[in-house]
Design goal:
The complex is a heterodimer. By secondary structure, chain A is mainly alpha-helical. Chain A is built from 2 helices and no strands. Chain A has helices at about 10-145, 145-160. Chain B has helices at about 1-25, 30-45, 55-60, 140-165, 175-195, 200-220, 235-250, 255-260, 270-310, 320-355; strands spanning about 25, 65-70, 75, 80-85, 85-90, 100-105, 110, 115-120, 125, 130-135. In chain B, strands 6-7-8-9 form a 4-stranded antiparallel sheet, with no helix packed on it. Chain B is globular. The relative contact order of chain B is 0.10. Classes of the chains: A mainly alpha, B alpha+beta. The interface of A and B includes residues 5, 10 and 25 of A.
């Protein structure tokens, strides 16, 4: 019975000590400790959320990059094929132009040649005429050196002339 | 570096306070001679002083006005009495380990079954006319103060390391304490109390660690242990009263409606009131008895097992006795944690039922 009868002195001391302990620990230990734990938990949760968001952002960026890359590739192919077409066009055009120019040049050359030929021919003709006249002159001079021949000629010429 | 400085200053403070305690106490090494002389006299008178295990057990699990250190060395502790005539203070060394009576200012006192009583005459008859309240610094009070001091040193240093390492992972002793705190919060307070748990955390944490450290100190058989604080009904009584007050002060309208206007026919109300009021009392009462009985029983078993050696008066029984004591000690280690947990857990449960929003 003695064992289960509270000793009032000890009750008083325990009450005092426990309440004092409760007060001191609540004020100087539990408050900062719980505060620090809560802060840390919030920080960790925040960090995890941020990491998740960063991961999503990352995958989004990767997808975007892939799309962009695909687009870029397609564009490049398009540009290349266009360039090829243009090149062929240019080559064809150039060939044609060269052809035309060549033809024109040839034509011009021919005209020039003809001109030169005509000039040369005229020259030759002149030369020939001059030479012929000189030859004729010399022949005439030779033939008309003596009086007889001159008379003969006149006679002949007179014969020819029919009145 | 700074932290160790703080710890050092706390160690200094601790030793200073311990020193102050000890100056109040007078170490009675000379009591040895007296004791031996008495035993010699007793042996001369009777055949041989018979070993009484139940007396030994009661002496060990009860409170004492001496703090036994070992062998015949014991501290005499201050006696503080509040009598109907006034306050009396003296050292318990005047009782000479219960053999002598002491004439105080107002009454004559003697130790009767380890308790200070006012007595009349030489034959130590208890004086029924005197009302004497004993507020002595007993062994349990010293142990109580030491445990409070230990808790303060531990948790204030942990709190300071939390302040210094804001936002960082716990380190050192902090990482021993943090899982316990989180356990109380996540597995005891939150599921039982609900979202209003934060207000009750200081009480639950203080209760848990107070009970735990006193259970553990109680398991140490020598100084600074040797006391049986949580196995003392006065201590568990105070804890239970704290629970009673906290639960009923925080009871909301649903809680009180459940007690005074439950969903039964009105003519049953008087019976229900009696039942519910008994319930209010019986819940903390069960807490009080559970903790007290568990811890006390552990101490009783350990001392009984050790007593076997003296009952059989042979050393041959010692190995058996020690083996069983070791087993019980390991069990008691479990019980120390378990009882601290159960007490805190049930407190949280009672608080939870008082602050619950929707009562069916």
């Amino acid at each position: 019975m003695e064992l289960v009868t509270p000793d009032w002195g000890l009750v008083a001391w325990t009450t005092l000590a426990f309440l004092l302990l409760l007060f001191l620990l609540a004020k100087f230990a539990w408050k900062p400790i719980m505060g620090a734990i809560d802060d840390r938990e919030r920080f960790i949760e925040d960090a995890l959320l941020k990491a998740e968001a960063a991961k999503e952002e990352m995958s989004r960026l990767t997808n975007e990059n892939e799309v962009l890359l695909k687009q870029a590739r397609a564009e490049r192919d398009l540009i290349l094929s266009e360039a090829k077409k243009i090149k062929e066009q240019i080559i064809a055009d150039a060939k044609e132009a060269a052809h035309k120019e060549g033809a024109r040049q040839i034509e011009l050359a021919r005209v020039e040649i003809n001109n030169q030929k005509a000039i040369a021919m005229a020259d030759v003709k002149n030369q020939v005429a001059t030479l012929s006249i000189q030859v004729a002159e010399k022949i005439l001079q030779n033939q008309l050196k003596d009086q007889q021949k001159q008379d003969e000629l006149v006679a002949q010429l007179l014969k020819e002339v029919k009145l | 570096m700074y932290l160790s400085h703080i710890l050092n200053s706390k160690k200094i403070a601790l030793s200073v306070i311990l020193g102050v305690f000890l100056t109040f106490c007078t170490c009675k090494t000379f009591a040895i001679q007296h004791e031996e002389a008495h035993e010699a006299a007793a042996e001369a008178g009777h055949e041989k002083a018979e070993f009484d295990p139940s007396e030994t057990i009661l002496e060990h699990i009860g409170d004492s006005h001496y703090f036994h250190i070992g062998g015949h060395v014991a501290f005499a502790l201050p006696v503080i009495l509040y009598t109907d005539k006034g306050l009396e203070t003296f050292s318990s060394s005047v009782f000479e380990h219960g053999h002598a009576a002491y004439q105080g200012k107002y009454y004559k006192y003697a130790l009767v079954k380890d308790k200070v009583k006012a007595v009349t005459g030489e034959d130590k008859q208890i004086d029924q006319t005197a009302s004497v309240y004993d507020f002595s610094i007993t062994r349990n009070v010293i142990s109580l103060w030491m445990s409070v001091l230990m808790l303060l040193v531990i948790f204030l240093s942990v709190a300071s390391s939390y302040k210094k390492r804001t936002g960082k992972a716990p380190k050192g002793f902090q990482s021993v304490i943090e899982p316990d705190i989180l356990f109380i919060r996540d597995d005891v307070a939150m599921p039982n109390i609900g979202y209003k748990y934060a207000r009750f955390m200081p009480l639950l944490l203080t209760m848990f660690f107070f009970i735990l450290i006193n259970n553990l100190i109680g398991m140490v058989p020598f100084f600074p242990g040797g006391s049986n604080l949580t196995g003392n009904i006065a201590v568990t009584f105070v804890l239970a009263v704290v629970v009673l007050i906290v639960v009923n002060v925080n009871g909301n309208k649903y809680y009180w409606k459940h007690i005074f206007a439950p969903d039964v026919p009105f003519w049953l109300y008087p019976i229900m009131w009696i039942v519910e009021l008994a319930g209010i009392i019986s819940k903390p009462f069960a807490l009080m008895v559970r903790l007290f009985a568990n811890i006390m029983a552990g101490h009783v078993i350990v001392i009984a097992l050790i007593s076997l050696i003296f009952i059989f008066k042979t050393l041959a029984i010692a190995p058996v006795s020690i083996a069983f004591t070791l087993f019980i000690d390991v069990l008691e280690l479990l019980v120390a944690f378990l009882q601290a947990f159960i007490f805190t857990m049930l407190t949280a449960l009672f608080i939870g039922s008082a602050v619950e929003e929707h009562h069916h």
